[in-house]
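Task 17 of the worksheet. Students: predict the tertiary structure of the chain below and write it out as structure tokens. Keep your answer in the requested format; marks are given for formatting as well as content.
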Amino acid sequence: MIDGVSLLSGLECRACCTLVEADRLIGVCPTCGHALLATYRLEDAPPGFRPEHWRTRPGGVWRYRELLPVRASRAIASLGEPETGVLPLADVEGADDLDLWAKNDGALPTGAFKAREMSVAISRAAELGARSVFLPSTGNAGVAAAAYGARAGVEVRVYLTEEARPELALACRAFGAQVRTVRGSIADARAAALEQEPGRGSIDLSTMREPYRVEGTKTMAFEIFDRFGAAGLPDAIVYPTGGGLGLVGIFKAFTELRALGWIEAIPRLLPVQAAECAPIVRALREGRSRAEPVPPPLEFVGGLTVPAPFSSERVIEAVRWSGGTGVAVPEREIRAAERRAATTGLVTGLEGAATIAGLAALRREGLLRSGERVLLYLTGGGIAPEVPWMMESAESTLPLRRE
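Model answer:
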């Protein structure tokens, strides 16, 4: 039996090739300030290490321990993350000739894929001695950080954009996090965090500014591999994109599976952004290696609203190396897609609905071909809008502060 010991070897910066020892708390590359990514000793995998060993374990995030960074089982902060469902989709307009599927992360704790990121990142931070973390958020990441921080005994501070749904702020506080709401975009929330956090000794959990949230997103690809097998992997994965962390994680996971000899081809990654805030798609379309910041949009489209994604080079690299490209769709079409999805029983949130809205654009441009297997990734619907005990907690404990 494989014991699940992590094969983590170190951290690397793809921008300047700096190598960093993994077993200390660190954020970005100490040489150039870009993102650090975890590396693994794949050549040291135990004899006979095969996918079948994973499949003898309970499903969910921590099934894949060898390719996750937490070394000690006792350090794992888990809320029982399940393997999320993969559903065939029929009668989707304009997709009759596709083998169309959806993977829905709404079943995860806190209702979104951010649970994957925060289970891994906060577990690793706690293992390395962190006692306090902070992050800017449009909602779902903050809720997940608050929940897993509570599980791990780590203090969490969330700088939440003012446009975030009120129930997300209430949920953060109900889990024990400190919350500050900030007027403006995710960039404004980060600026507020950087004003408040110096001297507190806290770890920055912002997207791509620490090495381990991306490791949690890898489990999305591992579950796709588990579900379809090497021979049946999707030809393309349509993914809603804000900061792009999930794209980096999915691509990283598939490259690791390929290095192990378990798969040959990597699915094309097809990010969808809101047309009102589409820096990643614009860079892909214009042939640039990094995204230029765009003005914050007038409309708020949830986690898709990231005007200046950090380390966008890694996101663009992942998409291009997979053979993919991106599309942008108007906010009104995303909201209409969310309503249509609800009539089929799917609670997608705006982010997940972007994949449905983007499907038509991908077909129009010939980016999806007849007969292809296509997976729409629904990243989750988030916390339910009315949770009475959370409302009561919000009124009786830590009041929100507004700018």
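Marker's comment: The two ends are 55 Å apart (CA to CA). The chain has three domains: 8-75, 86-109+212-378, 114-210+385-402.
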